[in-house]
Specification:
Elements: H1 12-15, H2 18-25, H3 32-39, E1 46-49, E2 53-56, H4 58-65, E3 72-78, H5 88-103, E4 110-114, H6 119-122, E5 131-132, E6 135-138, H7 140-144, H8 150-174, H9 177-182, E7 190-195, E8 199-201, E9 211-213, E10 224-226, E11 228-230, H10 235-242, H11 246-255, E12 257-261, E13 266-268, H12 275-282, E14 289-293, E15 298-301, H13 316-325, E16 328-332, H14 337-352, E17 358-363, H15 365-371, H16 392-397, H17 399-412, E18 415-421, H18 428-440, E19 444-448, H19 450-453, H20 459-470, H21 485-497, E20 501-504, H22 506-516, H23 519-522, E21 525-526, E22 549-558, E23 563-568, E24 587-588, E25 595-596
Parallel strand pairs: 3-16, 3-17, 4-15, 4-16, 8-11, 17-18, 18-19, 20-22, 21-23
Antiparallel strand pairs: 1-2, 2-14, 5-6, 6-14, 7-12, 9-10, 12-13, 14-15, 22-23, 24-25
Helix pairs in contact: 4-13, 5-20, 8-12, 11-12, 14-17
Length: 599
Amino acid sequence: MRLIPIPKHADPVKLGADWKVAEACEPNMKKAAELADELGILDEELLPFGHHIAKIDYEKCFARNQKKTNGKYIEVTAITPTPLGEGKTTTTMGLVPGLAHRLYPQGKTVTGAIRQPSGGPTFNIKGSAAGGGLSQCIPLTPFSLGLTGDIDNINNAHNLAMVALTSRLQHEFNYSDATLAKKGLRRLNIDPRNVAMGWTIDFCAQALREILIGLGGKMDGFLMRSGFQITVSSEVMAILAVATSLGDLRARIGRMVIAYDKSGAPVTCEDLEVAGAMTAILSRAIHPNLLQTIEGQPVLVHAGPFANIAIGQSSIIADRVGLKLADYHVTESGFGADIGFEKFWNLKCRFSGLTPHCAVIVATIRALKMHGGGPDVIPGRPLAPEYRTPNPGLVEKGLDNLRAHIETVRISGINPVVCINHFHTDSDDEVAVVRRAAEAAGARVAVSKHWQYGGEGARELAGAVVEACEDKPRFRLLYPDDLPLKDKIARIATEIYGAEGVHYAPEAIEKIDQIESDAELRRLGVCMVKTHLSLSHDPSHKGRPREWTLPVRDVLIYRGAGFVCPVAGDIKLMPGTASDPAFRQIDVDPVTGKVKGLF
């Protein structure tokens, strides 16, 4: 497989902005057909979107390669991040070419899988999710601005379900049973005060969290409270992430609970006869997208972000394809190991049956200083001097957070590798402090300079990952399917977060009683909704909080996706847009048509 040389003028230090680095590298990109040929993907399995992006026909490609032995499976997670993020995707996009530099001479192939960015963070604070510096997924502009339409399709499928529900409510309110029967409908007796879903939009739109719909006359809909959540937190996105085939996706969509009737029984997409149309909208989205790293390694982009309010995983389908086509496959999950990795471990791996060989825990000196008591890190403001000058003592104070995440990975039985994502302001003494602590906690450690040097800068990390993949994992799930829900939540809270226990609000207790009375719901997994900025539910509690209790205020039921979502603390499914959002910097060159300002 051909490695693409990095242009000398693509210096991330000099260029300063990720979009400028991507722009400098993109003229050397491989065509999608070349990527496919290098992976052994047949012409009839490739669904092109222009020259450099394609979808892979999952059903055809996987069926043809099903008997192949899977490659090594590598997961990328992180410590508890600052609001700036600590570079999981950047590390993933550096590790893939780093492994390539090491393994291609041996005739081995490497692929990566990352999540598609949401319009919410792209136009808000965090920016795109392509990685950074010389470790990016390209082409950057289409990757960041809708790609092949998967999130639009999820948005439309979700909102079609709400159209079906609200129109049915209006018709049932206005028409008799006889009139409904003439129209081929049966009365579902939907309770408008017990609707399980709202609407979706893929922006951070806090003004839409709570709304009234149906204002006007009787032909303008049913008057009721409703609201919006960000699209990537939709159960439809979760279903795309965990589905294993089109048939599986169709069955899961049919099981989605939209509301409850007046007796408390669930009303599903199948009941509303909308599941088939929703699946039709999603029939193209099930195929993973094929892009590349700056150095020309294949990257599968599929499913979405936000592991704090969603499952936040690259899809099972993308990983299945990657593991059949490559000798080493690197995937990522959202935020820290307490939420993103925990969901990868206990939900994604449970559904897929795949066993990872290694988990990379991304850590930065910056984040460790914050956990050690450093000043607040605030997006859009310059970093405090403590983050720009050597201070090994402050790093030492923050190491408990790293130790907690190493322990989480070790509980799973997966081999941990700590990646010190190196910034130019990091001192050798600070790095040495982290290395000693991580090794003492039972992890391999590597320093990686992939942001500045691409795959060459990730050689040490690639070596540690290859070594870790040779050790047989002793994989085990945290809880069995038949464990009572409160016990599942308690295990996550106490063994992963470090809480002393769990406190439930009355609404949560009512939902848990409902779940425990249903034989199917009792066996569902747990997808926690919790802040990513702390091991606890409180984003202000840094480091490794002690002597605290996890408050669960509600439990959402995602029957189609196959899990329930306890909501811990004050966290919302619709983020807000900040006062200095990224969209202020984005524009188009009127002469060339090129987009500038993405980061």
